[in-house]
Amino acid sequence: MLFGVVFAIVLVAPLVARTVHSPSKSIDQAPGLLIEINPLKSDQLNAYYNGIHVIEHSKKTQFVYVGSGKTKYKSHYGNFEIDDYLEERFGLNHVDVVEQNQKTVVMRFGRHALSLQVTLTVEDDVLTVAFGQLPPGMNRLWFRIKADGEEKVYGAGEQFSYFNMRGKNFPIWTREQGVGRNKSTYATFQADNNDGGGGDYHTTYWAQPTFVSSKKYFFHSTASSYVELDFKRKEFHEIMIWNTNPGEVKIGTAKSFAGLVSKLTGIIGRQPMLPDWMHTGSILGVQGGTASMLKYLKQAQDQGVSVNGLWIQDWVGRIRTSFGRRLFWNWKWDEKQYPNLPNEILKLKEKGVAVLGYINPNLNVEGDLFKEGNQYGYFVKNSSGDTYITDFGEFFCGTIDLTNPDAYTWYKDEVIKKNMIDLGLSGWMADFGEYLPTDSVFFNGQSGLVMHNIWPALWAKINFEAVSEAGKLGEVMYWMRAGYTGSQKYNTLTWAGDQLVDWSLDDGLASVIPAALSLGLSGHGLHHFDIGGYTSLFGITRTEELLLRYAEFAAFTPVMRTHEGNRPSQNWQVYSCNHTLQAFARLTKIFVLLSNYTRELVKENSESGIPTQRPLFMHYENCSKCYDIKYQYMYGPDLLVAPVFEPDRETWTLFLPEDQWIFLWDGKLYQGGKTYQVDALMGNTPVFYRQHSKWASVFKKIGLLKNTRSKQVHEEL
């Protein structure tokens, strides 16, 4: 009993409201929504949903606050400085239940003009907390979800530095991930001094106001404006929303983490299946024209590389800037650079090799597509009503207004369908989506503050519709780096963005592991990365070792795709020598041998929302250590992968949860529940499989692809 006299409102399935004065059943076992109010004290209330203590409200621990503030946004190349000045904040102590029926409980927090209506509804086994419009003069909302000191939380979109987010605050604002992403590193220091592009632990292309708790509930906000998820306090999680209409919060529970993510993705959407050709080899990122494309393909295939695609991002032609080679953002085939491309696409497709391109929602002012779209007023406007021209790094572009139906149709039909799908491209990188300035003016009348986060979801939608309407869904694939709520059901694939070509934890190879896991728990379970990384700056260049470590990691993901990087001539490529190609060929064979296993995982993600790459605790819920592991993952239910993310390593230390495990590379049996040091020479990223997996025969075949550089190291720690 929480108070001497308790008034309780209980909503259970089926949703029948009833009141009791002394509930005898355990709160932890109570199904549905239970609200306890002390009628003698108007500032005390507790709410439980399926046994989870969600709201704890008292004079000392208030549930909801309102306030006001003024914000300045400064953006440069997709990096945002957000300066907020808080003017006032008020806790709403008093609480009344003003309405109750079989589905909802309506409460009012605060008094008179300084009050806020909060409605709790249980429907389809999900609790919805809806906030009314804020009081006059208020533009900030804070509310708290009850927490405890042992709880861990994950998600918030794609997070590269932290997997368990307790102890940190996470701004939800899509933007460039930043170079280095750690204020103590040389690369970040240099990037900050150069153009403010250094990034931080929370900067990400895909931020989303969603998290999953170790207590087996999910939290999801429908707000698209700026949000902060603050996990610094032991007693509560505090969510801040900058909007006079804060929207709704969805809270769901499940008996397992797989069931929890499945329920979440049932609300926000799930990815379609990958095309089957994606599982037959690696996509090679190459450039330079038709002759170069075919030369690289022959070179790779001569060394045994399984190639399923050629990604020619410069199909539109190139320009050169101080950052490196850039594309001419005029999304039409450059016939001079790629002569006879349509015929070559047909011939390559007959041989099982797809050709892929590149696009984004911006058009270079020097191109004819910009001139055509601009005469119809199809671009996002500035405050003066003129086309908003943005500097993308020594060239200038307009951004197509995806809220304008005519502009949307033109870009979908005349650019994506006609110039890309009709050309014969089997896919493309659908880049950007995170640059949108906050002072933009849109056809739909919404502010840039509201549209900024949701913009990449609209960008995903137009790509999805173009492919679907062309009858190519399941054949054509596109991949994106920026995202938000809603991207899930419109985006066929995500990639991790522009990692540095180094070994740094926050922006190197290691960072893409928690990125995949956090995004998977946020509802998008198809993730991959540029093999070798992308960004080469300040003397940092890619080595053969880094490239191959990335590649051996990629073999145990849904997609293998190489990238030349922003400065190809200064960085090691898969085609730099035959030795590299031969090592890469072995890894592509591993990927192909895993194809049927991967197909099953992709199908499960599409049907149930369960990600292909999973945290260890998704399958080992009773293992307390698994909740803190962010640099290992389960690839489906049967493979445990621990990528090597440090240079010059011949052994690697990892943890095996309680189970019977077989080391992929020698067939030795390991008892789980322990930490081991194992062989990890180049080409042998540490991988284990469950002894009794139905896929054991497939895994054994992979183990036969011996690495001549490998040696046997087995040491229990």
Instruction: Output the structural class.
Output: alpha+beta
Q: How many H/I helices?
A: 13
CATH topology of the largest domain: TIM Barrel
CATH arch. level architecture of the largest domain: Alpha-Beta Barrel
Q: Using only CA atoms, what is the Rg?
A: 26 Å
| Beta-strand residue fraction | 25-35%
Mean pLDDT: 94
Please describe the biggest sheet, giving its number of strands, its sense, and whether it closes into a barrel. 8 strands, antiparallel
Going across the biggest sheet, name each strand in turn.
8-9-10-11-19-16-15-13
Spans of at least 5 consecutive residues with low confidence: 1-6, 12-29, 710-715
Tell me the span between the first and last alpha carbons: 47 Å
Shape: globular
Count of separate structural domains: 3
Proportion of helical residues: 10-25%
> How many β-strand runs?
40
Instruction: Name the CATH homologous superfamily of the largest domain.
Output: Glycosidases
Under CATH at level 1, the class of the largest domain stands as Alpha Beta
Would you kindly provide a brief summary of this structure?
This protein has 717 residues and is an alpha+beta fold.
Helix-strand blueprint:
Blueprint: E1 7-12, E2 16-20, E3 33-37, E4 45-49, E5 52-57, E6 64-76, E7 79-91, E8 95-100, E9 104-111, E10 114-123, E11 126-131, E12 140-146, E13 153-157, E14 169-172, H1 186-195, E15 207-213, E16 217-221, E17 227-230, E18 236-241, E19 248-253, H2 257-268, E20 282-285, H3 290-302, E21 307-311, E22 318-321, E23 324-327, H4 341-350, E24 354-359, E25 362-364, H5 368-375, E26 389-391, E27 396-399, H6 405-421, E28 427-430, H7 448-469, E29 477-479, H8 487-490, E30 494-495, H9 512-521, E31 527-528, H10 544-554, H11 578-593, H12 595-608, E32 613-614, E33 633-635, E34 639-641, E35 651-656, E36 660-663, E37 669-671, E38 674-679, E39 687-690, H13 696-703, E40 714-716
Parallel strand pairs: 20-21, 21-24, 24-28, 28-29, 30-31
Antiparallel strand pairs: 1-2, 1-3, 3-4, 4-5, 6-7, 6-12, 8-9, 9-10, 10-11, 11-19, 12-18, 13-15, 14-17, 15-16, 16-19, 17-18, 22-23, 25-27, 26-27, 32-33, 33-34, 34-39, 35-38, 36-37, 36-39, 38-40
